[in-house]
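User: I'm putting together a teaching handout on how multi-component assemblies are represented. Below are the sequence lines for each component of a complex, exactly as they appear in our records. Could you produce the 3D structure of the whole assembly as structure tokens, so the students can see both representations side by side? Please keep the chain order the same as the input.
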Amino acid sequence: MTLWIDVSCILAVFLALTLLATHRIVGMIKIFALQSFLLSLVPLFLHADSLSGRDLLFSFGTMVLKGVLVPAILFWAIRHISMRSEIKPVIGLGTSILFGAVLIAVAFWVSLSLRLPGKLFSSLVLPCSLATMLLGFMIMVTRTRAITQVLGYMVIENGIFLFALSLFDAMPALIEMGILLDIFVAVFIMAIVLNHINEEFERTGGSASRAKMGETL
Amino acid sequence: MLSFLILMPVLGALAMLLPVRTSFRLWFLCGVSFLHASVTASFWRQLPASEWQGYLVLDPLGLILLSVISLLFLSVSVFMIGYFQHEHRGNRIFTACLLSLLSMMTLVSVSYHMGLLWVAIETTTLFSAPLISFHRNQGSLEATWKYLLVCSVGIALALMGTFFLAIAAHDIHTLFLPAILSGASSLSVNWLKLSVIFLFVGYGCKMGLAPMHSWKPEAYGQATGMVVVLMAGGLTQCSFLALMRVSQICYKTGLNDFYASILIVTGVLSLGVPAVLLLGEKNLKRSFALSSVEHMGLLVLGLGLGGVGIFGALFHMINNALAKVVMFLTAGSVAQKYGSSRASEVQGVIHIYPVTGVLLLAALFAGTGMFPFATFHSELLIINAAIISKHYLLPGLIILCLAVIFIGMARIVLEFVYGASTEPVLAKKENLFMNLTIALAAAALIGLGLWVPAPLSRVLHDAVVLIGAS
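Assistant: Of course. Below is the structure of the complete assembly, with chains in the same order as your input.
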């Protein structure tokens, strides 16, 4: 089963890189949903020979919250804000892919010197989770739209999630579910605040103040 | 008893969502805060037993924080009765979020599991966000957004730090604080160092320490005074509790010097940055927000210096909370009366509202640590700790920063109080509930400055022993 975990890790990084190079917000949300779905399968691969109820519950919970509900909320938000594409990233898409590649190299280089104690099921988990986190930060920094910043935040969380799987046994299930729920509610509240900001702009006669605020939406 | 203290506000929050009269909600909120405060007060007699299989434990450190939180909520809920006499916006979501926040802050102060601590602190961020955007105007929404994003990302780093801690504690296989402390020798030092850095940056971000303070002037400047009191006196100190938990672990594993150097550098930065920024500030609430960055800096400095510094920091937690009540409730009441807190629009408060003017002066002295306010004593203890620990440059630096901060604060507050008077938007009438709350907090602060009661001093000493200094 280590093979499947490796494949998931590499795909997660690959999808984060694709996210960095995607222009359309709808496309970005879909890629994020795919990444979350993929990561939610990893707990099943971990204990493939003896699946416990907890693995199933955790995997299912992640799938529903991150793979379905969070993308649904984000879709709801962009429908209300009615903006479909990124206006202008801080740096061009080509350049950001190049930077992304550098970040992946950095993540692998850093994790060479870090040694996880105990039995390690896959040597790719640590570098891949670091790379996903760094790419998430990259998305947050280079994109100007609020909704893409939320996506960047969620990619960081996905990276942390991948890392958390390596110590799946140390964390009580209750805490894991609490963490998941918190992240879900965070996105929910962010979407609501975004919606309020948008309403406020429309009420006060949008474009001038929007220009003043510097394309935050 | 502990789970009652956590669940009771949640039930209250649900009751707030029912369609009832605005004034009923306010009195109900008062009732819940009073109940919370009286249960907390009973813990001073005897600490309660642990609950939920050891997840919830109240130790002296937690007791100090819990009492501070309880006190803050009590004063805010009394203040709100006065505030909502002139506020026409509905308070359904507002009060529900307040009570949920109370519940989560209580959970922070009693959680004895590093994972649960993270969950509770993250949840406080989520419940405080809707409170900041209470006025729903462009500025407050923008501030809410900034707060949410900066703190969420910061807290995500703390989550990473918590996982690193779990790896460091691989042999112990749990994140319960007592287990980590007793098995400290088996922790892997390299992972622990990494974990300490991530936890510090993450929780420091939530605390608003200097390089990560960017959300603070915005959020405190836009939120109403009551919310800021809870954030500056309660939420930030919840994160400080997390930093103290890290300190406990570092002490047991001999990483004390490593952690102390991080704390001292950040502490000095958190004193220097607001000192520079305050000199050009034109907004009362924003300048108070910068002063709050300074107080957070003092807290981590005290923790980093160790010994009497820890005692000073713990004492400063209480004083800081009381000072924040005086400062931000006065600022809130001024902002409500004038519809602004910019120096260009509000001047000569003392000519129109004599009591509020005097309270504003008290806020200046309480916030900058003047005698006889207790903030003076805790700041002195922290400076003293710097001298004892032979950092001879540090006391001079601290005093210089405090002096500059005093000049910056005095400049704006005196202009507010004594300038040529401008017309307020509200009727020229003082409000009893609002002024009484502030005056009581100021009196308590002076009282603590003159005399520290024996039980308080005992609990402070017990808490210092927990962190590890002699």
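A couple of points students might notice: The mean pLDDT of chain B is 90. Chain B touches chain A at residues 113, 115-116, 118-119, 122-123, 125-126, 129-130, 133, 136-138, 141-142, 144-145, 148-149, 152-153, 156, 159-160, 163, 166-167, 169-171, 173-175, 188, 190-191, 194 (CB under 8 Å).
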